[in-house]
Structures are given as structure tokens and as C-alpha cells.
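User: quick one, fold this
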Amino acid sequence: MGKTLPFAGAPRSFPDLVSDVLDSVEEAAAGVLAPALPLLERLKPILLDLRHRESPTPLSIRKALDSLQSVLQQSFALVKKPTGPSASAIGMIEDSVRDVGRCLGLLLLACPDAPLESKEAMGTLQREMMAANLDSWKGGDECGGGGREAYGGEIAQDIEDVVLIIKRGEDDQLGGALTVLEIMIGDGLVGEEDIVGVIQALLNRLGSAKHGYRLRIIVILRKLADINDDNKEIMANSEALSNIVKSLSRDVEESREAVALLLHLGDVLKFRQRIGRAKGCIMMLVALLNGADPSSSRDAGKLLGALSSNTQNVLLMAEAGFFVPLVQYLKEGSDMNKILMATAISRMELTDQMKTTLGEEGSIELLVKMFNSGKMEAKLSSLNAIKNLSCSKENDERLVNSGLVSHLLQILFSVTSVLLTLREPAAAILANLAKSESFLPKKDAAQQILSLLNLSSPEIQVHLLHALSSITGHPGAKKIRAKMKESEAMQILTPFLVTGKDEIRIAALSLLLNLSRYFDGVFSEQLGEFYLIVIVRLISRTRNEMEKSTALGIISNIPVNDKKATQILMNANLLPLLITLTTANTAAATTPARASQLDSIAAIMVRFTVPSDKQLQKVSAGHGIIPCLIKLLSANSIAAKSCAATALAQLSQNTVSLSRSKASSWFCTPEKPCRVHGGRCLVRSTFCLVKAGALPPLVEILQGEERDADEAVLGALSTLLQDEIFESGSEAVEEAAGVQAIMRILQIGSLKAQEKAIWMLERVFRNGGQKSKYVEVAQNLLIDLALKGDPVLKPMIGKILAHLQLLEMQSSYF
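Assistant:
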């Protein structure tokens, strides 16, 4: 019977809610729950009394009534044509009456303020409903016609009606229909002619049903699959099979039932062929295999094993990170299947963990064996697979130990046309293997690779250059580098700097960068003036930040005392270029390439500020190197800060003598003399740190957390404490908060930094004003350092304590 629903946005009043429940009670009593009519009739007066309740209605009463109505409406799904009640149907009615009794118990608890008489009536009725026994209705015609007439309607015995409810019924009807279907299946009432419709209806409804109903549907499908293989065939052929797959990704209980159902279907060939194409199925099975639920993991493993008879499923498993079947095919499969698996590995996007897992499961040895013994197609597919696996440290060691390197070199030296297609993957694998320390013991491999460079195509040359770069970069490759230094390696490598192929040129630069770190004074000589200028031009022209960074790194590694190289670089206008790059890089967002460039720029600037060449210093200052160095003091890299401080220290060493040479002319201008150096100081002509504003950023480095630049910064500040100017210089340092920063280094600095700091403090405390200001702090700090610090510091500390007039207290110790 139809009902008019209230407007969705307006909550029902309490009397309306009770009236709706009464209507449901009457409908149930006249229909499906007719055998329980006497009990339901006693429920009506209780509800009528409740409807006339005058006091405010608690939420708990509303919830109890909602539950009662829900139970009654679920029973409506069972109302069908009057064919007479069966024993199993009466059992369901008893269950529904007990559910009503439970709701009545909730209602009783929610009405503690009800009259005693009403509560006793509810309690008595609730107990009778919970103990409902309708035996007199069981047995069909034995109950007489009166019973059937009173019943008026019946639990669905027609399977078509059940299927219709499963297909189109509301959720509150679906539960009842599933219960009826379970009973009918148990009683053998579902015929062969109906089974297709039942299974299809269940699979389709599985896609839209709520959680609890999905679980029940899957359980019913498992029961049907257990009956015979024909039912499995029906499920396997269903277009709605994907709905079972979706349940694999839901909660633990549902996914457990879903994988168990799919395992039941696993012995059907058609199912095994189709399930791999179901979106996400293999991936979710692998996830369950690796999951925490033992039952799901066990069933998923069995199902994956069954599905592995199909090679396409095996490939999908591998993509999901389950490689056992794939490795098994590499071991025992046919030649074509081995090629198929190797080709798949070569094309997969593998994470480092996946590569390692494949190696651990034995794929490396199997692929090497396939390469050594297989025909051309097998060699190519296995080599490409090895190429994809060779970017893993563990796999690289396995490959090197397998003896593959000598075979790769043979391919690269071979002129046989049939092997040409193997050369590119062979070179790429060599480049990957060269990253491993285990590659180094391979005798003469580096020299062989070097000799191959001019015999190879550009695509091979790139890999070979990368291989050599990796080999020469290993700390343990000292003998290999020495051999390259003695050979004509530079003559082979430098022509690649003028190639038009960017990838080759950058790879050659990377190799030269490694060599420049270890070739000491002979590097620039072997490189030659022409190619040194070529590198400078590359810095100015390339738009590739990494190429620029590598080229700058090469120049920064040339020893500072190589005057010939310095002159070549000055003539090539490198310094103005560096100043321009510094401005650009300090203004732009920091990247690894830009940070590396600033490190190299600062290191190169040290060579343009050596204190022994005042003329070079003047030229550099004229180009604006000092403001550039001040910027580098605030760079994000501690290495750049250290080199910048070193360069400033070198410039400042000559400031005293340069300012004196200007002293005779300073009175001709209105400018006052420098308060530190006494003469006429200009940044570009006397390199005065005070005039340049270098003290605050230098002190800031000492106040920071990184310690690698301490010695260089202290070296720069100490130039203000030379004999002639230590009094005025100490005042300038103190004004920049430098004295506190220097004392901080006594506590946290390295031994060399501490020695420098003590030397500086001794100079500072010669100044009476500074001594009185810091005596108390310095006393405790210095005595503590003498007691706990390195013994080499004690004499120096004693000298400071003498200045502070504290030595008498500690004289026996010192």
C-alpha cells in the first residue's frame, strides 16, 4: 500500500511518527505477520498511549520508534501471494516478531518516566515476542483454512518475485529478499531454469548495494558456486563480474569473502582468461597477498597461482610487483615465453625496490644465462632486460660477479654486423655497472672503454663517457686515474668539448671534472690553452645549468698557484663573467646547479685575489670582485661562504700598505681617514673590509650553526688585528659584535679555529677598554677551555689571562 512521504526538508512531528508506526503494524498484522496477530494487536494500545504523550519527547524514543518501523518495513519485502505458509517461512516470521520485541525493549528503556502500568504491559509483551513460537501455523493445510485466510499474504515462494526485489527493490526490502533466497537455496527450491537470472541479479545488485548487503550477496554467490560447476560458468561469463573485483578493495571482511569467491571460480578456464582484464583485479590480489589478513593472503596467493597459467596475467602481476610467476617462466618456460618475459622486464617502469626484488628472486642469473646461450632474439631481449635492472646497486654487483662485463666489451669491440643491435644496450649496461665499486677490479676495463671512444657511434660514446666518469669518480680508482694521467686520455677526451652534440659534450665535461680533482698541477697543462678557453666560452654560452656548473667546477679545481692558467683565464674575460653569474644566481631561486655554480665561482675568485700579486688584486677589485664576494658571504652554501671569506682575507692583507701609500694625498680631499687603517681607504683601491661593509656578514657566519667556514672567517677578521692597527681594528670588530662571536668559537669551533680565536682575543684584550668589558665572561670561558680543551691551547690561554691580570690565580697550572 502506498504512502505519501512528507517534504524531505521538514522533520516529522512525534504524533505523525507514531501514526506511521501504527500503520506499519496494521499492515504487517494483515499480511506477512498475520500468524503473530494476537501479539501485534497488543502492541497497538501501547503505541496509542505513546502518541498522546504530553511531555517533551526524548531523542531516544524517536530512535526506538524508527528502529521498530524499519523492522516492520523489512518484513514487507516478504509479502507475496497467498500460497500457504511453509515451516521455513513461519521460522522467518518468528525471527521478525523477535526483532519487533527487541525494538519494544529499546522503547521501554527510552521511557523511564512512563506510567508503571504501561511499562509492565511493554515488558510483558516484549518477553512474549522474544519467546514467540508459531508452531500451530507450521504444516500448511494442517492449520485449516481459517489460518490461511487470517494470514492473507505469504513469504515469497515464487523465485521470480525474489529476483525482482533483488533487482529493483529498496534497501529495506533487499535484506528480506536475500533471506528468502538463502532459504530457497537451502531447501533446493531454485530450479536450473531460474539460476541464470538469480546469479545475474545478484551480481548486478552487488555493484549498488550497501556494505552489509554486499557481504550477504557474496556469501550467497559462494553457496551457488559450491553447488556445481555450471553455476561457476554462469558467473565467469557474466559482464557484471567486475562488481566482485570491486569488493576486493573494500573492508577486510568483504575483501576476504570476495577473494574466496573468486578462488572458487579459479578452476574455470573462461574465468581465468577474463579476470585478468578486469580493471585493477590483479593489482588488488597482489595487495591482498601482501596484506595482514592471513585468510585473504592465502586465497589471493592460490588464485594468483591459478591465474599464472596465462602469460598476460603473469605480466600484470609483475607490473603490480609480484614477480614469482615471471621468474618461474624465465626458468622453465618455452623459449618464446622467456623472450616474452625478458621483453616485459625491459619495458616496465620499475622502482628501485622492484629491481632489487627481481634480482633477489633470481632473474639476473637467468637473464645472463639466456644472453650467453640464447639465439639473437633471446640475446637482445635479455640484454635489454638487464639494462633495465642494472640501475640497482645489488643487481650491479650480481651482474659484475656473473662475468658479464667481458662479454659486453666483446660486443663493443666486435665488427660483426649481426651484433650491432646489441652494442647500445651493452654500452648502457656498462655505464650502469661502472657506478658500482665492484667494477673497479676488472682489469684494464677503463682503458678498453677509453680506446673504444673513437671507434663508436655518438649514442655509444655517451654511455662510454658516463662509464668512465663513474669509474674515475670512485675514491678507490687511484690506479686507474694514474694510468689515465700517464696515457693520452686528455687527447682523446678534449675534442668532445667542441662537438655539437650536447649530451656527448656534457658527458665529457663530467669526466674531465673528475679528472681535474686528481690530476693536480698537470691538468691544465694536459688540457691546453685552447680547451681552457673553450670551457670559458661554454660557461658564457650554454643555457644548460648543469653544463655551466660542471665547466665552472673544472676551472675551480685548477691549482691557485698555476699562474699561467690564471693569466689565460683573465685574458678570456672569465672574471667579469663570474661577477655577472654571481649577481644572476644570488637573485634567482636556489637550485642544486646554481648552488654548485656559486661554490665554484667563490673558489675561482680565490685565485684572482692572491696577496702576492697586488696588480691582479687591483684589476679584480676594479671589476667589482669585492661587492661580489660580500654577496657570496650570504649564499646558502657554506663552501661558497668559506671561499669568499678567504678571498676577502687575501685582499685585506694588503690594505695597511695600500692605505699608507695613499696617505700623502688624503688631505687633498674632504674625506676623513679610515678609522682602522689611518689612511685614505677606498674599496676598489685599498680593499678595506670596514669600508666594504664585510664585517656584519662575516660575524653572522660565526653566529650560525655551520662550522666549516670558521677558520676562513676568522682569517679575514684577523687582518684587522695586525700589529699596526690592532687597537682600532679590535674596536671595529667589537662594534660588529665580533668579540662575542669569537668567544663562541672557543666553545664550539674546531681546534684550528680555537687557536685562531685565542690569538685574536689576545690582541683584542691588549685594548684596555675591551679587556674591562669582557673580563668576567672571558675568564670563565678561558679557564674552562684550559681545563677541558686540547693541551696545545694552554700557553696561548695563559697569555690572555696575563692581559686580564688573572694569571696569578692560575700561574702554577700554566
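User: anything notable?
Assistant: Confidence is low (pLDDT under 50) at residues 1-10, 79-85, 137-157.
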